Amino acid sequence: MQNEITLDEDVQRLAGLLKAKSKDGVEKQLVIYSCFDKRRPPHSLVYNDPDTVQELGLRGVLKIDKVDNNVDENAEGFAGPPFYIVTVSAEKPLPLPRGVTWQEIDGGLTIYFIDNKNMVFPNINEKSAQYFRMLLERHGLPVKHEDVIQRIKDVESTKEIRSLAQTVKEKIAHHTLQSRIKLDTKHQSAYTLTITFSHKK
Fold first, then answer.
1. How far apart are alpha carbons 73 and 1 in whole angstroms?
2. Which pTM value belongs to this model?
3. How many CB atoms within 10 Å of residue 188?
4. How many CA atoms lie within 13 A of 188 on its CB side?
5. In what order do the strands lie in the sheet with 62-71?
6. CB–CB of 168/185 below 8 Å?
7. What is the predicted pLDDT for the residue at 21?
8. Contact status, residue 113 vs residue 101, Cβ threshold 8 Å
9. Which residue, 169, 160, 112, 140, is CA-closest to 15?
10. pLDDT digits over 30-81, tens only?
11. pLDDT given for residue 160 in this prediction
12. Are 172 and 178 in contact (CB under 8 A)?
């Protein structure tokens, strides 16, 4: 029996795996099997929720090319769970989790969680707000220092970007959102923002 996993958790998990597969910048065709498919090849990409692959398609993470299934050898005449042949484009930001939105309003930028938590940058013209917007727009992808320097006026060095990142981290901590919003530096000369959230009804 599989561990309980929500649709959004499965979408986030599989989107992350697909992103890793396409990190070399090349479009790829891949096959995604059900976790219950006993005939799937070892080390396959799998979905746990039957709606995960369709949801990833709706969010633009992948394009479904074909749906097929293997015959269940233990029950003659019955097909096994479907597998999907998909195309994954490179360098697509991860979709934000369900229940998470952001918008610019009244000259500021706010990220909202459906359980009424939020984080506000009151002035969108302030450098840390512009930097956070860049991170949101490329959610799950590294935001290179060189891109920040090109886009944000008066930011001219890696040292300044580290200072902006520290300001964003302090704001996350101030709003006690460290368990939901992560800013890390796994890539050289780049920060990556990742938001995780699972709204329990």
1. 20
2. 0.59
3. 8
4. 0
5. 45-47, 28-34, 79-88, 62-71
6. no
7. 79
8. no
9. 140
10. 999 999 988 899 999 999 999 999 999 988 888 999 999 876 566 555 677 8
11. 96
12. yes
Residue 1 has pLDDT above 50, yes or no: no
Tokens of 135: 């991170």
Tokens of 181: 């919003």
DSSP structure string for the chain: -PPP--HHHHHHHHHHHHHHHTTTS--EEEEEEETT-TTSPTT-EEESSTTHHHHHHHTTSEEEEEEEEEE-TTSTT-EEEEEEEEEE-SSPPPPPPTTEEEEEETTEEEEEETTS-EEEES-TTSHHHHHHHHHHHTTTSEEEHHHHHHHSTT--SHHHHHHHHHHHHHHHHHTT-TTTEEEE--STTEEEEEE------
User: Stretch 135-153: mean pLDDT, rounded?
Assistant: 92
